[in-house]
Amino acid sequence: MIPRLAPGERVTGELLVFDRAERRTKDGSPFVVLTLGNSSGKIETAPIWSDKLEWADGARSGKVVQAIGNVTVYAKSGPAKKQLELTGPVSILPDEMFRPEEFLPAIEGDYDKLWAWIDRVRADVESATLRRVLDLFFGDDDFRVRFERTPASTAGHHAKLGGLLLHVFEVTNIAKQSARTMQANVDLVVTGALLHDVGKVEAYEIGPGGFTYTPCGLLVGHVVLGTLMLERRLAATGQPICTNAQLTELHHMILSHHGSLEFGSPVQPMTTEAEIVHWADEASAKATDMIELLADEELFAGGREYSDRPNWRLGRRIWRRPHSWE
């Protein structure tokens, strides 16, 4: 487990090159830093200086290498950070021996159980119109295969194989219970929750260095892509499934689920159901950020119950509970 590596520990094994950074010192001498990792996490190498640049020959993003080195701590400025100090050149392993997916993090949950829950929720939708809309996506086997491989982000919450499936399960579960509590339209909320992130199937992909954006993901973004995908699937049926007014409301739920313009939503929620989906999305994302960051040993390298620094995912320091509630 890369996150649990301790200073002085010896590392030897097969790792994926997530990134190769070529830099220069103040006097212009070149050096290289590799970001290596596997499904448990990532670690940067200590600088590979100009006299040993051949140690990184062929080590580019997407390659699998055999690496040998020792874990050290770098703390020249800012918080201490673990790094891997190579003790010899990396060996490039043949591409046909590995698939990048083998080195990427994946959710721990059972995919079949998550799908079974989603399918039960779909079946419980009383509106025949909304069931037909949901079937356009979740009744399509090819879409299901792509959906369950897609991460929910490239580097933030649920950035794992199966991450989108788990995130949508969480959002739908939270939103459904909230809708019942607030006496909102449960069918509409469930539909909005299930559809809110379908655009990520076309926005993200597994690239040479892990999870990355597709051209559409960069140029259009998953929020707008979701509405375009809905339009395309409805048009492909060749028959009207919902009215223009109903379609507008479905578009609104997808387009507003980030809550505000500065966070990527072209519009803000203007219905109770859209508001519920937005906050369910936030609850899933931010609670997952908190859980994952509380487990990040580098954030707590100082040995205190408070994190050493804020993290970009939450923008604030966090606290590890030092006591139990048993």
Blueprint (SSEs and pairs):
Elements: E1 10-24, E2 30-38, E3 41-44, E4 64-74, E5 81-86, E6 91-92, H1 111-124, H2 128-138, H3 141-149, H4 163-182, H5 186-195, H6 200-203, E7 204-207, E8 210-213, H7 215-219, H8 222-237, H9 244-255, H10 272-294
Entry summary:
This protein is of the alpha+beta class and 326 residues long. The protein has helices spanning 111-124, 128-138, 141-149, 163-182, 186-195, 200-203, 215-219, 222-237, 244-255, 272-294; strands at 10-24, 30-38, 41-44, 64-74, 81-86, 91-92, 204-207, 210-213. The radius of gyration is 23 Å and the shape is elongated.
Derived from helix and strand composition plus strand pairing, the structural class reads alpha+beta
Global Rg: 23 Å
Low-confidence stretches: none
Topology pattern, helix = H, strand = E = EEEEEEHHHHHHEEHHHH
In percent, how much strand structure appears in the residues?
A: 15-25%
At CATH level 3, the topology of the largest domain is Hypothetical protein af1432
What's the level 1 CATH class of the largest domain? Mainly Alpha
Shape-level CATH architecture of the largest domain: Orthogonal Bundle
